[in-house]
Amino acid sequence: MERLPWELLDKYFKSQITKSEHQLLESWIAESEEHVLIFQEIESDMKAGLAFPGHFNANTVETWNELKRKWAIPRYVNIPIKKLYRMAAAIMIPLILAGGIGGFFISKGFVKKGANSSFTTIYSPGGQKTKVILPDKSTVWLNARTTLKYSSSFSEIQRNVYIDGEAFFEVKHDSLHPFTVKTSSFNIKVYGTSFNVKAYKDADVSEATLVKGKICIQGIHIAGKKNDEIIIHPNETFKYFKNNIAYNKSGSRETAINDKTAKRDEPIIQIAEKVDVTPIVAWKDGKLCFKNENFSDLAYRLEQWYDVKIHFEDSEVQGIKFTGQFEKENINQVLKYLQMLTPFEYDMKVNEINIRYKK
Predict the structure, then answer these.
(1) How far apart are CA 46 and CA 51, in angstroms?
(2) Residue 164's beta-bridge partner residues?
(3) Is the dihedral of CA 112, 113, 114, 118 positive or negative?
(4) Which terminus, N or C, of the chain has the lesser number of Cβ atoms within 10 Å?
């Protein structure tokens, strides 16, 4: 059984490691590519201000077997190696890799198994991206804190999935058997295409952006459009605002379809044309892009991207707008860059960040 050298790692990050201990640690890192990846992940988290992970259950084999008994691990899931050291009992690398799970973070309710379970649920944790191959060979990329669910009866004939979060779909073409994505606000009927959907249940705005092909928005319950289908063309974004407050807060320049007829607490919808889809779908390639975005909205994305929680101590700083792109920067580097553009201060404890206007 192989365990991580937690004591050496702890001493290393506290700058208390001796020369001989440092040599032992370097030898362990050099043993395999997996060890290099694990060390880099822990080092990245430490630089981002996260707490040292400590050690986990030593009995890795028993813990892993218990996980396999309780939760089904689908073979078609393909996930980049990420935060391996946080998995289960952390860690017996050959066993984990043989299990076909890569960097998947396992938690109860993550992938359900059992005679009474009629759905498969896949969850992409905060700070991670997940790639999933569905039974019909369609591909889905899940952004951070996203849940994908589909019925055990999913087939080439009946292709329905449920999304809470953000995902990019490349759907296998089949004109006779549409592919349906169901969100908390609307449904998307797909015939074989590439598109991005962002529909977090707790967000005020949900949207779907078409890259190529054709999609139809269904299941909208608003005056004059109930049960209608709205066809979306390439380089268009369909937006669903929960109410007038969310619509006005967005500052969107596109004309809403029903802004004249909607009551204060009713949803508002609009279609943005000639959209540059590149920054919208860049997240699946590890790039965080934002353009003229309020700090409060950007903070929501940073929370997902870096698996942190951001608190604003005053409202003055929340309306500041930013434009930029990040790729390999950690959360501290991102905040330092934003500080160069506007006067604010912040402090960070583990994964909690407090931001306030600099007076």
Answers:
(1) 7
(2) 147
(3) positive
(4) C
Give the relative orientation of helices 295-306 and 331-341 as an angle to the nearest 10 degrees.
160
Name the band, by pLDDT with cuts 50, 70 and 90, for residue 168: very high
C-alpha distances in angstroms, 204 versus 79, 94, 164, 277? 29, 43, 13, 21
Q: What does the buried/exposed string (b/e) look like for 276-298 if buried means 16 or more CB atoms within 10 Å of the residue's CB?
A: ebeebbebbeeebbbeebbbbbb
Write out pLDDT tens, residues 332-344.
Answer: 899 999 998 888 9
Q: DSSP string covering 303-319, please?
A: HHHHT-EEEESSSTTTT
| Dihedral pair phi/psi, residue 84, rounded to 5° | -60, -35
Asked if 217 contacts 204 with a C-beta cutoff of 8 angstroms, the reply is: no
Q: Is the pLDDT of residue 13 over 50?
A: yes
Q: Which domains does the chain have, with CATH numbers?
A: 1-109 (no CATH), 118-279 (2.60.120.1440), 287-357 (3.55.50.30)
pLDDT digits (tens, 9 = 90+) for 140-150: 999 988 999 99
Q: Are strands 352-357 and 309-312 parallel, antiparallel or unpaired?
A: parallel
Structure tokens at 240: 């669903």
